[in-house]
Amino acid sequence: MAVFSVVALDELAAGDVLAPERYHPGRRARGGGEAVALGALCTVESELVAPGPGEARLTVLDTGDVSEGFVRGAARSCARAELGSTKKRARPGDVLVSRLRPYLRQIALVDEAPAPLCCSTEFFVLRARGAESIAFLVPYLLSAEPQAILQASVEGGHHPRFRREALEELPVPRRLVRRRRSLSRAVEAALAERRAGERALARLIRDAGR
User: Fold this and answer.
1) Are 35 and 173 in contact (CB under 8 A)?
2) Which residues is 126 bridged to in the sheet?
3) DSSP letter at 56?
4) What confidence tens digit (pLDDT) does each residue in 20-60 have?
5) Is the separation of the CB atoms in 140 and 100 below 8 Å?
6) Domains, the chain, ranges and CATH?
7) Is the pLDDT assigned to residue 11 strictly greater than 80?
8) Whole-number mean pLDDT of the chain?
9) What single string gives the DSSP state of each residue in 74-132?
């Protein structure tokens, strides 16, 4: 089914962008309660790590290492000189959101890092403003409305991505913000259980191969 948007000239995006994807009506929240813009709850970090001398080892996360709220434990490790391309810095407590093909749901909380951590530049790295955890944002970002908005916000045909502004403007319901501490603890506990299961299975695989 065709989708139409009527936009006045003075409502065009900065630079008078005419790309039809920029004005998809699915990018607008449905409403239904008070909300806080996601960008008011966290910053989007962009510290880069280029190949070269430096840390002895780095843990490197690619988009395939992140899915459905969880960071795969078997991410590769390498020397900084072996990075191959520029990466972004990340650290435990950050939330990673891939801007590439949002239907893949490559969103997760960084729950631990055995070495200094960096990730693909396809990720937006969200970091809390202040000391409170932003783990509660993971289930929100994976829920139906934010997913629909992000998927409607992609631009480009070959490698469809959404822009930083689409993420920062997502409306986080105040009912979730008010419960952020308990929700964050619940997310962290769920990830700890999954991490324990991942390690137990890895031990069983190693034992089976002896």
Assistant:
1) yes
2) 44, 95
3) S
4) 544 444 444 455 579 999 999 999 999 999 988 866 788 89
5) no
6) 34-208 (3.90.220.20)
7) no
8) 85
9) T-EEE-GGG--S-EEEE-TT-EEEE-B-GGG--EEE----SS-EEE-TTEEEEEESSSS
Residue given tokens 């055995």 in the structure block: 114
The token pair at 187 is: 């997310």
Residue with tokens 């990075």: 83
Interval 60-71: pLDDT, tens: 999 999 999 999
Element (H, E) at 138: helix 137-141
- Tell me the pLDDT tens digit for each residue of 88-118: 999 999 999 999 999 999 999 999 877 789 9
Indicate the SS3 state at residue 38: helix
For 35-53, b/e burial (b = at least 16 CB within 10 A) is beebbebbeeeeeebeeee
- How far apart are alpha carbons 77 and 82 in whole angstroms? 10
- In angstroms, what CA-CA distances link 73 with 37, 65, 91, 120? 31, 8, 14, 16
The larger pLDDT score, comparing residue 17 to residue 84, is at: 84
Rounded Cα gap, residues 54 and 129, in angstroms: 28
Q: Which residues contact 179 (CB under 8 A, 6 or more apart)?
A: 136
DSSP code, position 155:
B
Gyration radius (Cα) of the chain, Å: 19
Residue with tokens 């034992």: 207
